[in-house]
Amino acid sequence: MMAVNAHAISFVVLCGFTLLYGVVMDHTNITLNHTCSENSRYHSANCSYCGLTSVPRNLPHDLRSLNVSDNNIFMLLDKSFVNYKQLETLDASYNSIYFIENETFHALLLLKVLMLHHNSISVLPISLLEKNVHLSLIILHHNRLKGIPRIFGNNLKTNQFAEDGANACRCKNLSRFDLSFNEVSSLEQGDFLALRNCSLDGFNLNHNDIKSLPRAVFKDLPAVHLLINYISLAEFHAESFLGNKAIVKATITGSNISSIVPMNTSEIPRDLFPGIIKIYLQYNKLITIPKYALDGFEKLQVLDIGFNHLASLHNESFCGLKSLVNLSLGHNEIKSLPRGSFACAEKLESIDLSRNDISVLDPQWFDGSHRLSTLTFYQSKIDDIKTIPWNVTNLQTLILANNNLNSVNRNTFVGLRNLKCIDFTMNYPLTISVDAFEENISLEKIIMQNLAKFTMTGSFRNMHQLVFLDMSYLHTRLEITSDGQFSHTSALRTLILSQTKIIAEDLVHSKSNRSLFSGLVSLYTLELQHNSFYDFRQVPNAFITLWNLRELDLTDCRILIIDSRIFRNLTSLTVLSLRFNSIKIIPEKAFQDLHNLRTLRLNSNSISVIEKQLFSRTPSLLCLYLHDNQISTIDPFTLIPTSLKVLIIANNPLTCTCQLAWFREWLDKVNTTIYQRNETRCSSTSFKSLNNQTIWSFHPEDYCGVNIYLIVGVSLAIVTVLSLSVLVYQKRWWLNHKRFLLKLAIVGYQEIIENQGPEDYEYQLNLMFREDDEWWINDCMKPFLQGRMPHLEHIVFGDSGLHPGSFYLNAIYDVIENSYKTVLLLSNQSVEDTWFMTKLRMAVEHMNDTKLEKIILIFLEDIDDDHLPYLVRLLLSRNKPYLLWVDDDEDAQEFFWAKFEKSMRANREMNNVIPV
User: What's one Pfam family the UniProt record gives for this protein (predicted)?
Assistant: First the structure.
């Protein structure tokens, strides 16, 4: 008893000395001149690093923010803050505080943020914060607290107030409570009672010395993210969370957990089952997951047990998890799994088994997982997949990247009829058979980056649903065995062939002259960067079928020359990148079809000349990148689109002389933003005083006088116009007479046309040709019709469009009779074909019967007169329409299509009378 009294006396003496020391130091501080910096605008004071031993009391009374961190304060007393009743933020961190009186913060009724971290606090008074109902943030990490501080008053009393409504919850605004890096060694029921009705977002107990979590210890915590990482738990007792329906997320990582102890759900009322939604147990020491390990966690949706030492599972390990959707088992030591390992979790949609030691993947592991949609095996050392039918019919995403797969064939993915995405990135050495995806008719996305070798043998030819295909960064050259690789891949939107070591000749088949991209009518994005296309002149038809293409990337493809025809027909293109090549000259007509082009990247080439009409057909151009080239001047009257918003022409050897004066003046007038202005400089060939100066230092009015040639030219033009006007007026009657005669010679008489239009016929167009000439229909006629005559909906393409079940000649005559126009393709081979000539004769006879010029002849090549059949010569002698296709002349082709469009407008009545 005397020992106890002596201890009590010692404690009273210590407290008295402490209070006396505080009063003396507090009084002393009043008389000292503090060195705090004050900001009256924000009502704040910063007293950090001032060597203070107590809180200064002679600061403005209307302070809302006070910082006394990084000082030598040991105690906070009841009167420390009585002068600062407007405080909302208080930072007393990084001091040596070990003692705080009970009513220290009672005067701070508006306090929201309290920071006391990095001190020496071991005990906090029970009612320390019972008056601070606006607190939202309490930071107490890096102190010496031994338990959960009950600082909102008596727990039972607070709870009673909260329940009967007699008093508001004292922590209703609290969102974060940080007790990490303390010396908390145990948790008890009732520790969190005062927090039951708080609005906490996070409660942090990381880096404490907690060795166990008692039964139902968290039952009073509100909806919160509970952080208890890096403790010394050893065992995870599922019963610790009994009775709590509010905790949203619990993270218990790096806490030395070596086993999970399930709870006995048969003896526990169901209304006490935990309501937690997410549990993270990464970086522990788990070796196995026992049966029914987390039975009772009926609301759990996310479970992460990655970065452990799991080597085995039971097929009942996850039983009881009725709501589990996402399961992560990555970074473990799993080599094999029992059949139906995850069948118990009936709602499971995603499983991550990345970075394990799986050698052979067995589809039977996932039997019974009927809702499984995503399966990830990233870097799991897989070198083989058992050829057993998959029983996960809902699987849509399969990630097999960074493994050692050797081969994939038709039997590898049997059963995965709903598979939409598969990733084979970085598998060595992987071979994919031509029929590998025949069972996977729903595939929309295939990623095959960084493969050792791949040969295109038609694997994608009939993948009607494929939208995204990435075969980039092959270690050896992509081999293309034949044309028609994408014959029916009409849904593909994105194709990535970057760094596949292909060359220009690979883009067009040498024998059929067919583009590699034929069939890709929906392609939006084509990436071909880091390949070797030295000369595009050999393959002008490379992109001719891609009329829907939006983005084309040819970055770093070693391109030397741009052919004027290479980008024709790309009328939908919005982004074109040709940067980091070796282009010197770009033909004037290179971009003439790019009406929708918005971004053009030509930087980092060797371009020296910008043709005057280069951008005349790009009215939508917004961003033009020309930096890092060899451009010295831009000729006057060079057309620059008025739509241009961004221009970069830096790091070019610009010659700032009078020839460039117009461009310098243009820079001042337009609203275009010029980037890298400081790098846009005049070269040594400029006026001497402008050498290496920015182009904005060049003021043309200081260097260039009146242009005498321009004045003389304008004057001469005016005199010429006036002279011609006088002459025309004097000869006006003679000119009117000659104009009338010319009109008669050209216009002639009015033609009589058929009253019926294309819409009145069953077929708007009938195309007849030999099977050998079908390539021209696919590569030329179909793209034209879809791009420029989309209104023609009912078209017969050869014999494939004839009525089935009819006699051949009857079917041909029926199509001819019910077609608005009949087009026949003539070649040297077709005129020798008996059936083709029969079709021609039938078409001519129908034309004679109807007296309408309904036939159009198209010559695909020159045919010698001696070789031309009499019927064709007779038809041509009567001035019937015919067209001649020219392969290598772009202008001739444009004229060809214009004539064809005109011929499709009406059917003229035949007139064989020669006028007198």
Answer: LRR_8
Q: HSE on the CB side for 137, CA within 13 Å?
A: 12
pLDDT single digits (tens) 873-899: 777 766 556 788 877 777 788 888 888
* Backbone angles phi and psi of 569, in degrees to 5: 80, 0
CB–CB of 178/184 below 8 Å? no
Q: What is the pLDDT of residue 714?
A: 80
How far apart CA 556 and CA 579 sit, in angstroms, is 6
CB-count exposure of residue 549 (10 Å: 0-12, 13-18, 19+): buried
Residue at which a domain ends, from 573, 590, 620: 573
Buried b (16+ CB within 10 A) or exposed e, 192-204: bbbbbbbebeebb
* Residue 201 lies inside a defined structural domain of this protein: yes
Q: How far apart are CA 258 and CA 245, in angstroms?
A: 26
Residue 726's pLDDT is 84
| β-bridge partners, 350 | 326, 374
What six digits make up the tokens of 312?
């085995």
Per-residue buried b or exposed e for 474-493, using 16+ beta carbons within 10 Å of the residue's own CB: beebbebeebebbbebebbb
422 neighbors 445 (Cβ within 8 angstroms):
yes
Element (H, E) at 826: strand 822-826
Q: 3: Cβ–Cβ under 8 A, 6 or more apart, which residues?
A: none
Half-sphere exposure of 104 (CA within 13 A, CB side): 22
DSSP-H helix ranges across 177-262 = none
CA dist 382 and 374 (Å) reads 17
* Sign (positive or negative) of CA dihedral 871, 874, 876, 880: negative
Say if CB 60 and CB 45 are below 8 A apart: yes
Length of the chain: 916
Residue that finishes a domain, picked among 727, 747, 767: 747
Report which of 858, 855, 853 is spatially closest to residue 896, judged by C-alpha positions. Answer: 858
- Per the structure, the complete domain to which residue 728 belongs is given by 708-747
- Tell me the C-alpha distance between 460 and 742, whole Å: 60
One domain, residues 209 and 300: no
Nearest to 254 by CA among 318, 216, 210, 191: 210
Low-confidence residues in the chain, pLDDT < 50: 1-33, 155-168, 749, 913-916
- Domain assignment of residue 544, yes or no: yes
Distance CA 796, CA 806 (A): 16
Q: Which helix (H) or strand (E) segment is 419 a member of?
A: none
Query: How many domains does one find in the chain?
Result: 5
Q: Could you read off the pLDDT of 180-221 as tens digits, one per residue?
A: 999 999 999 888 988 888 888 899 999 999 999 999 999 999
State the Cα–Cα distance between residues 712 and 602, nearest whole angstrom.
Answer: 38
Tokens of 554: 């040819």
Are 477 and 453 spatial neighbours (Cβ–Cβ below 8 Å)? no
Which pair of tokens denotes residue 846?
């129908």
